[in-house]
Amino acid sequence: MITASAPEAAPPDEDQTREVSIDDLIVGRPLVFPVNDTRGRLLLAAGQELTGSAKRRLKSLGVHRVCAHAADSMIQNLNQVELRSASSLASHDEISAKLDHVVEQGLFQIQNSGPAVRDRVRQHGATSFDRELQKDVSELRSETQAELSNLVKEALQGRNDTGGAVAQMAAQFLAQSTEDTDCVLSVVLEAAKKPDLADHALKMAVLAMAIGIEMGLDEDNSRRLCVTGLVCDWGMYKLPDELLNADRILSVGDHLQIQKHSQYTAEILDRTTGLPSQTAVIAYQVHERPNGRGYPKQRTSERINICSRILNVADTYTALTSPRAWRPALTPYAAMETILRMARTRDVDPDVTRSLLKVMSLFPIGSLVALNDGSVAQVIRRNGNQYDRPIIEVVQTADGSPVPLESRVAVDLMVSPLEVVQAIATPGSEEETWCEPYVLIQRSLR
Hints:
Blueprint: E1 17-21, E2 35-37, E3 42-44, H1 52-60, E4 65-69, H2 74-79, H3 92-104, H4 131-156, H5 163-179, H6 181-188, H7 197-214, H8 219-231, H9 241-244, H10 252-259, H11 261-270, H12 279-284, H13 306-320, H14 332-344, H15 350-360, E5 368-371, E6 376-381, E7 391-396, E8 410-412, E9 420-424, H16 438-443
Antiparallel strand pairs: 1-4, 2-3, 2-4, 5-6, 5-9, 6-7, 7-8
Helix pairs in contact: 3-11, 4-5, 4-6, 4-7, 5-6, 5-7, 5-8, 6-7, 7-8, 7-13, 7-15, 8-13, 13-14
């Protein structure tokens, strides 16, 4: 980690030393000058090569602002660089034309080259989650979100070899999903304390992979689906913060600006190595809709990659169940209800929506429901085509007494006299609840 060959630095000029975000230090270069915290304590020595892991370690210790010399600051370094003009780079139009050619020539379709992953997914029936697996998935979720945030920042700084690291993330979640898909979804889709783009990407990617597995994809295509979900919104990081963090209903102009992120993403992925084939074209079409009302090219179902259609449904569910500055999150049931309505108008793919139901049930995994005996339960597993009869654990008895975690028992509503009578918002949340009896939603499935 220490680079002995780094030149000996002259004493720092105080006029050139400034307080900056730790993210403004450039990874992979030996530090010209020492880096101190805002109280003057030494954090990193001169000559030490700054790594991504070192940044993450400092952040874990609560260090987010440091005092660094201008020579080590990304902002100062970038201000001194003459950036290539648009004419010297592949333009958005050129990259779009390349991806459009793939679509128009019908080269975007995927086929399985191996057995369906679904055939080796373990079925657990009416059993509770393994607590050790829950812990492992939770740790992987936290690690992945942190690493994903760093990778996209490094990609925006010009690093082009991030694809392999993303593919490794997908492989880890695929392995855990074959062990217990319900458990993985329960952990990954849990509401984040501070939802951000990395949190959204991970939820969308893992949910899309679960849908793809349900639809019979093989290992390569399941992994490709997850990888694309992790990277398909990287272009969002190029949009202005005031737009991403807007605390108002977005205008038509705002939406048009946000739509540009598909092309920004295509630009980033075009130069990124280590990604599975077709990742760029799948990402490019994620926001297309089967009825032709999507973007960037308003294509319809037959001209949209199936992986893109799967990701579109997963993206929609994830967005609906996440809070925005101008609206609270929907309950999982309300989100499912909304997607079912969208399937009627082909704003999302109906076949993919059916698979979403098989994966999550009508009362999605992790959500709370009231039962006909007055008790409250949490949905822990789907139950095949029995969308309204998932597998649950009672968390509160009819008299309002909480059921301790270690005392909870999995109940299969397909064989139990208990029935769901209402979807419930998560306590302490501001989730908007359902407003239509679910029997009406069931009719839309026929």
